[in-house]
Amino acid sequence: MNSSTLPKFIGVLVSLFCIWLITEFTLVDLCVQQGGNFDYRKGQCVLENGEVFKSGLETPMVFVYVVVAFSVTFIVARLLTRKKR
Questions:
Q1: What is the secondary structure of the chain as a DSSP string?
Q2: What does the alpha-carbon distance between residue 65 and residue 22 come to, in Å, rounded to a whole number?
């Protein structure tokens, strides 16, 4: 395995964890506050009456996910490669 592959892989795992936390604190908590249940398979908030709740944050969150994924992966990989030297 290439010596630079492991830090990048760890960076991707950390970024996925960060994206999961962002989703929990924004979309899922907002869904629960509205009295619904978040369906993780579909990525939707289903209210008690069966309606799908849309907060308007879904589309901007995709941009946030991309920015967080690239930046966290880059930072973590850079930090891990600097410590080895």
A1: --TTHHHHHHHHHHHHHHHHHHHIIIIIHHHHHTTEEEETTTTEEEETTSPEE--S-HHHHHHHHHHHHHHHHHHHHHHHHHHH-
A2: 8
Give pLDDT tens digits for 9-52. Answer: 999 999 999 999 998 888 888 889 988 899 888 888 999 888 99
d(CA 41, CA 46): 12
CB atoms within 10 A of CB 73: 21
pTM over 0.90? The answer is no
- Characterize the bridge pairing of strands 44-47 and 36-39: antiparallel
